[in-house]
Design goal:
By secondary structure, the chain is of the alpha+beta class. Helix content is about 30%, strand content about 25%. α1 packs parallel to α7 and α8 runs parallel beside α10.
Length: about 425
């Protein structure tokens, strides 16, 4: 088992492709919001209840980290987590646990704000290129922290955080959230300029505000935080996961299916809807659902990944799987992560014709893929392989399913309910 979770480390997915997905699927809570909101609950002086959490490995790891540090945490089957931070008694995160996920860096600012000191193991996460944290460090230093990196830990100390104006050199989700967390209880006003605008940044700001913080402008590129002296626990429901929703939209198009994806916020998926429509896919939206219908090979297109509201890097890999069967040549430019093409070698085993030149993928669409044994190298690579397997002729066997379980709740069960022939096997 991984970290006390429910998933076997050697699980494989076996997919008999070629079945159109049909029916309705419900989107879970957003992974990248959950991994920020759970640590944020430690800033309060009373318990919080966080609802609509996805049952994924990153959430289970965070639960275990918080418990190991003295907080009282209960995760119920309906995806709600009770967090009582009053017993928190450690400013160091357990190294092995923290290294299992990227977002353990949010504990840095939270522990710093609570204790004036924090020691967090250098974050792990998917291997999708160099993942610098210079903007996190720059932000925390501007707020008055001293940061040292030694023995695999980032160590931060302060005698009191003070508001500051911070210009981010790159638009960074992690740095924006980390600075918001640290600044919420700093003395004075903090302004983050060139902030990230992703829905999970807004969701984290909403949670902090519900606890009593004073944050304005989340969702724009300037966020203003007026520090408050204390925060109180509250109840909060995590926003729907727009990347999971986008993955199902792409899977529906890839299998020439007809799927209603429910419990989402359509505006979060405008870049994806726009691209699918360009590709000849039928996309229609209601208040909290999107319907995707397709009956033909997609038309080729051009995609450039960008910070929100641009096309998300996290859907580049699933989209490249779909484009591998487009009727012509597509071009993808990956502007966020420099090695987010590891899935391409695997899709090529299935018959795709793709050339990578630095950050550009040139995809010559083929009529169909054929199933093969493939390996998921990271979370979204795994999602791309699931999509490739669903549309391929024959059997695809995906190893390293642990990466997929990190970010998708019950992906096999949700796809099975839509008519996919997919089976999890534990080796
Ligand atoms: N960057 C820097 N310095 C920093 C931070 C980032 O140069 O201090 C650069 C990165 O190298 C990258 C760009 O800025 O080129 C954006 O990185 P960002 O900080 O926004 O990424 P992140 O916060 O580490 C989150 C998501 C990722 C998602 C990116 C981009 C979480 C836990 N992770 O990562 O999600 O790809 O934003 O949207 O929120 C995933 O879910 O599969 C995933 C990898």
């Amino acid at each position: 088992m991984i970290c006390g979770g429910k998933f076997e480390i050697m699980d494989k997915l076996l997919i008999h492709g070629g079945k159109p997905l049909e029916g309705e699927v419900c989107v879970s809570g957003c992974k990248n919001s959950a991994v920020a909101v759970i640590p944020a609950a430690l800033l309060a002086d009373s318990p919080s209840v966080i609802e609509n959490l996805p049952y994924i490995d990153d959430v289970l790891v965070l639960r275990d980290i918080l418990k190991a540090m003295g907080a009282k945490v209960e995760l119920s089957d309906n995806g709600s987590m009770y967090i009582d931070p009053s017993g928190l008694n450690a400013f160091t995160t357990p190294m092995e646990m923290a290294r299992r996920m990227r977002a353990s860096y949010y504990l840095l600012s939270v522990l710093l704000a609570r204790f004036g000191k924090a020691e967090v193991a250098f974050p792990g996460g998917c291997d999708i290129g160099v993942r610098p944290i210079d903007q996190h460090i720059k932000g925390l230093e501007a707020l008055g922290a001293k940061i040292i990196i030694e023995h695999g830990f980032i160590k931060a100390y302060t005698s009191g955080l003070k508001g500051a104006e911070i210009y981010l050199d790159v638009v960074s989700v992690g740095a924006t959230i980390n600075i918001m967390l640290a600044a919420s209880m700093a003395d004075g006003v903090t302004e983050i300029v060139n902030a990230a605008k992703e829905p999970h940044v807004v969701d984290t700001a909403n949670f902090l505000n519900a606890m009593g913080a004073n944050i304005k402008g989340a969702g724009t590129d300037v966020i203003k935080i007026r520090g408050v002296s204390s925060l109180k626990g509250c109840q909060h429901s995590i926003v729907p996961d727009q990347i999971e929703a986008g993955t199902f939209m792409i899977a529906a198009a890839a299998t020439k299916g007809n799927v209603i994806i429910k419990n989402l916020i359509p505006v979060h998926l405008e870049s994806v809807s726009a691209k699918l429509i360009e590709m000849g896919v039928e996309v229609s939206a209601g208040d909290d659902f999107i319907r995707v219908k397709s009956s033909a090979r997609p038309k080729p297109t051009t995609i450039k990944t960008l910070p929100y509201p641009g096309f998300p890097t996290d859907l580049q890999q699933p989209m490249s799987a779909l484009l591998s069967i487009a009727d012509g040549t597509s071009i993808i430019t990956e502007n966020i992560w420099e090695s987010r093409y590891k899935h391409i070698e695997e899709i090529k085993r299935m018959g795709a014709k793709i050339k990578i030149e630095d950050r550009v993928a040139i995809i010559d669409g083929v009529e169909k893929l054929s199933g093969a044994p493939v390996i998921a190298t990271d979370l979204r690579a795994g999602a791309a392989l699931v999509i490739a397997g669903l549309m391929a002729e024959g059997v695809t066997e995906i190893s390293n399913v642990k990466y997929i379980d990190r970010g998708y709740e019950n992906i096999d069960k949700k796809l099975m309910a839509l008519g996919a022939d997919i089976r999890r096997i534990s080796v």
